[in-house]
Amino acid sequence: MSLKKIPGPTALPVVGNLYQYMFNKSKILKYHEVLQQLYEKYGPIVRETFGNKTIIHLFDPVDAKTVLDNEDKRPFVVPLQETTLLYRKKSDMSLGLGNTNGEEWYRLRSAIKGFMFDFYGLRNLSVKKDGVFDDIIKKLGDEIDENGQVKDLRMLFGKWALESSGITCFDRRLGYLDNGEMEKLAEKIIEANKEVFYLSGLLKFSFPFYKYFPTPKWIKLEKAEDVITNGTKYQMEKAYDEMYEVMSENRGDIPNDRFEFLTDLRKKLNKKEITTIMLSVHTDGLSTIVPSLLYNLYCLAINPEIQEKAYQEVRKFMSEGAPATKELISQSMWVSGTVKETFRFFPIGTEIARILKKDLPLSGHNIPQGSNIHINMNVHFFNEQYFKNPRIFNPIRWSDGLTDLSEDAKRVRKYVLMPFGANIRSCAGRLLADQDLILMISRILYHYQLVYPENEKPLQQVFNTLLVPDRNPPIRFIKRS
């Protein structure tokens, strides 16, 4: 079975298709648009070669269904960031969920499953975070200027994401919203995270010289990884110290409502493995939840009629000075629908990656076991075949069912929009992320009306390993009376 029969752009000897990216940074930053162009030019299946690595792009939801329906309980993936994999190997760290396959991955996944997929436990966790939501709303108010705008929303909400995940990981407030030294540490971690994802995106489309000797980009990336890792390890050690203190006060026992995540992990994993898990849970939101929040606020700002309906819904579940009710998470239609619809307008990832564990027929080609597959469904997010009136921002489409679609479209639409990945290798923190997004959006809507200035150009996305806003969204926050 030859992959060379699959259509795709001309590849050169040795470099393959890398030459199209290596000397054109703008093409890397608009990689999501390149994928759209590949689909339009070559069709539902496309081959690209990067050095000695061949990627098979799948653009047909039927093929996505074929791949995902044929998975076993231990699907193989390629790491999102091979740079992070290399850094952790060099640093003698546990590699973590996203960088392992087979039994090792399954063991790590099983260790966090009990906590991360405990729907009611996560609801109770949201109550612990109530003070964090109060503080970020206050800090938002402090940073709004005379025009109603915030200078750096990504930085502001990055601090919220870290402080919020501090409750999840370390069962305590970290001080990242307190205007002191700890807030400065948060700023360093946020900037380092931004640098890592930017440099990883560039290195993805370059010759991997950095794997053999320290190139300038690798040196910068390694320093940024150090900031993130050391910052998390610092918080980990403080959490352990506090936990041991609590144990000494309780004859070796830990109260059921303290250190739930850490206690659960200690039963199944060693400290090195726990540190990497905590590193991911603590900082992954900077590159996922934070840009998603910015996209949601932007979509609400440019759709004022949707914003008003979401606001009226929030008022049913919230009152001044009182925490958000659990019903807001489970019963909201407009806010939760906005989150889903925003993922369609502004996806975070560009692909779901898999390594085939058996031969599969895809778009008329027999693709062999071991092939590197990228499921690229973003090209269909505005396709009338799967979404009625696709250019209209309509949160209610997610609660109306699929009555407007053909039977064939109904069968595959769930394979079109998969913001958290698919099957057992979907994002382990998806329930937590969804909950935090709904609560944060609701808090902001309760206190502020969102307005997007008419003279500002629309928000765009750039590829930095994941898709992030091309600039600080110039949203105006108007205090509600």
Automatic annotation (TrEMBL):
<comment type="similarity">
    <text>Belongs to the cytochrome P450 family.</text>
</comment>
<dbReference type="InterPro" id="IPR036396">
    <property type="entry name" value="Cyt_P450_sf"/>
</dbReference>
<dbReference type="Pfam" id="PF00067">
    <property type="entry name" value="p450"/>
</dbReference>
<feature type="binding site" description="axial binding residue">
    <location>
        <position position="427"/>
    </location>
    <ligand>
        <name>heme</name>
    </ligand>
</feature>
<keyword id="KW-0560">Oxidoreductase</keyword>
<dbReference type="GO" id="GO:0020037">
    <property type="term" value="F:heme binding"/>
</dbReference>
<dbReference type="GO" id="GO:0004497">
    <property type="term" value="F:monooxygenase activity"/>
</dbReference>
<keyword id="KW-0503">Monooxygenase</keyword>
<keyword id="KW-0479">Metal-binding</keyword>
<dbReference type="InterPro" id="IPR050479">
    <property type="entry name" value="CYP11_CYP27_families"/>
</dbReference>
<dbReference type="InterPro" id="IPR002401">
    <property type="entry name" value="Cyt_P450_E_grp-I"/>
</dbReference>
<dbReference type="GO" id="GO:0005506">
    <property type="term" value="F:iron ion binding"/>
</dbReference>
<dbReference type="InterPro" id="IPR001128">
    <property type="entry name" value="Cyt_P450"/>
</dbReference>
<dbReference type="GO" id="GO:0016705">
    <property type="term" value="F:oxidoreductase activity, acting on paired donors, with incorporation or reduction of molecular oxygen"/>
</dbReference>
<keyword id="KW-0408">Iron</keyword>
<protein>
    <submittedName>
        <fullName>Cytochrome P450 CYP404B2</fullName>
    </submittedName>
</protein>
<keyword id="KW-0349">Heme</keyword>
